[in-house]
Amino acid sequence: MYYTNDLEIKPCRGDCSCMRTTGKCFQEDDMNWLLPKVEDANILVLASPLYCDGVTGPMKMFMDRLVPVIHLTMEIRDGHLRHPARKDMNLEKIVLVSNCGFWEIDNFDPIVAHIKAFSKNINAEYVGELLRPHGHFFRAMLENDMSVNDVIESARQAGCQLVENGKMSSETIANVSRPLMSRDAFLQMANQNLLSDQNQE
Ligand SMILES: Cc1cc2nc3c(=O)[nH]c(=O)nc-3n(C[C@H](O)[C@H](O)[C@H](O)COP(=O)(O)O)c2cc1C
Asked: What's the structural domain count of the chain?
């Protein structure tokens, strides 16, 4: 497990010599050792909180710097022009793990669409997502022992299913995202907390 926030990953400079020839970026940073690990892995799990309807900045920089895994030439794949994968890559599957602040699950629609499209473009199968809406409350409930361990247990099971069967069951995925409270209760509690923070300022 690697935290993009703690790594030095410089932004892609759009030079594309990595895709055209060497398969290696001209920049020296933590991607030097991280990219070979991605190429060797069978499954890549991208985990990011939802920031402005997408992944965080450091995660996006990491994703941009994965382009050396594909070649700049083009081919038609599933009726669509794409870049072919480099022959020496093992990466087969991509999974998304995300949490967000708002209550509704549809807040994740843009990030899911993004990672699905990204998976197609780097020639890996998108195998699904573990999503935790109202993540802030989830953390508070977890810290206060408020019967949300089943959510953690489902996330663990999803990982086992992925390794053993190559996919996660829809029941397990649904339990990871299960509502922790009604939307009205969430709205009331969130505003209470926010207003009391405001009064303390
Ligand atoms: C810059 C920023 C942008 C955010 N954008 C969204 C958003 O678009 N939708 C949403 O539901 N939550 C959004 N959030 C809330 C976070 O997704 C939420 O607080 C999440 O639990 C943070 O994850 P963490 O506790 O692992 O840091 C945003 C938070 C920040 C700081």
From this structure: 1
The domain that holds 108 is classified in CATH as 3.40.50
The mean of the pLDDT values for the chain is: 94
- Averaged over 156-164, what is the pLDDT? 96
- Structure tokens of 78? 């599933």
Domain range holding 48?
Answer: 4-200
Please tell me the pTM assigned to this model. 0.95
**DSSP code per residue over 76-127:** EETTEEEPPBPTT----EEEEEEE-SSS-GGGGHHHHHHHHHHHHHTT-EEE
Q: How many angstroms does the Cα of residue 169 sit away from the middle of ligand 1?
A: 26
Closest to 46 (Cα-Cα) out of 135, 107, 114: 114
The sign of the dihedral angle between the CA atoms of 152, 159, 102, 1 is: positive
* Single-letter amino acid, residue 51: Y
Query: How far is 116 from 41, CA to CA, in rounded Å?
Result: 18
Residue 86: band (very low, low, confident or very high) from pLDDT cuts 50, 70, 90: confident
Of 53, 100, 197, best ligand 1 pocket probe by most atoms within 8 Å of the beta carbon: 100
Report the pLDDT value the prediction gives residue 190, as an integer from 0 to 100. 92
